[in-house]
Design goal:
With 276 residues, this protein is of the alpha/beta class. The protein has 9 helices and 15 strands. The chain has a 7-stranded antiparallel β-sheet. The chain has a 6-stranded mixed β-sheet with strand order 10-9-8-11-12-15, sandwiched between helices. The chain is globular and about 55 Å long.
């Protein structure tokens, strides 16, 4: 059993949980994830390791309450426990050797972008973070992102925080004039956002890494549910990723596959709301 040590709301729909998981914390690296089950009838659901503390034996996961599993997870409180948790899974982010990086996070993707920004900062790289949200009231992890970046820009769709626009607007302005010396871009967020970021960075020849979130079941490469096309080759996000060269990803295929079970997901949420 994996005890929930702390539960904290980050915004209206985003929550951070600190879990007692010493064996996972001992091995975890930026970019990796865990697969957990809330109870015996729950599905296996992947969550990025948002942070870890080896000395305390804890990991943090951040979730958005949008589906049945996250709704079920949100019923738990500090002191409760998850049934099981497997990890760390996936390939760690490859962050060695970079001097100057820009990390772009969109909405819930900021929870996944943050550990890479933190790792780059700890390796001595100059880090710029661009974070995007729909509005000011759902901004999260601002203090954490500021602490691991040399420059932080937060954009909102409606301009309620003073910077109106998309992350691509801020990125394009940053890169104009020859790329400003950046040797790595990391983009994590909704599929259309990651695709748009890659379209901005491509003319600059800037290496751009994205973290993909396809449908995933076992997390060990056996079920094939998380297959993605990268550079005309089939890859499995759980063992070959989740990080990939964004300029090689077939984002349209990824988005179509992620939409495959939307009707079933809506039904599951409806039934959960009815106590079924």
């Amino acid at each position: 059993m994996y005890t929930i040590l702390e539960k904290r709301a980050l915004s209206k729909q985003m929550t951070k949980m600190t879990l007692n998981a010493p064996l996972v914390a001992k091995k975890a690296l930026a970019g990796q994830f865990v697969i957990l089950r809330v109870n015996e009838t729950g599905e296996r659901a992947p969550f990025t390791i948002a942070d870890y503390n080896r000395a305390a034996g804890t990991i943090d996961v951040i979730y958005q309450t949008v589906g049945k599993t996250t709704m079920l997870l949100d019923t738990l409180r500090a002191g409760d426990a998850l049934l099981d948790l497997a990890g760390p899974l996936g390939r760690p982010a490859e962050l060695d050797g970079y001097r100057k990086a820009v990390v772009i996070g969109g909405g819930a993707g900021c929870a996944i972008a943050y550990p890479s920004a933190k790792a780059l900062h700890e390796k001595g790289a100059e880090v710029t973070v661009i974070a995007g949200f729909r509005s000011k009231d759902i901004i999260m992890l601002e203090e954490e992102m500021r602490a691991v970046s040399d420059r932080l820009t937060i954009m909102t769709d409606d301009g309620s925080n003073g910077c109106r626009g998309f992350v691509t607007d801020a990125l394009r302005e940053l890169l104009d004039g020859g790329g400003a010396g950046y040797d790595l871009a990391i983009a994590i967020g909704p599929i259309p956002m990651m695709k748009a970021v890659c379209q901005v960075t491509a003319p600059f020849g800037l290496r751009t890494v994205v973290s993909l979130n396809p449908i995933m079941v076992d997390g060990t490469g056996m079920c094939g549910g998380c297959r993605v096309t990268v550079g005309d080759q089939v890859k499995f996000a759980c063992v070959d990723g989740p990080d990939f060269d964004g300029h090689q990803v077939d984002f349209d295929e990824l988005q179509n596959r992620n939409r495959a079970y939307q009707e079933h997901e809506r039904d599951a949420c409806r039934l959960f709301g009815q106590g079924i």
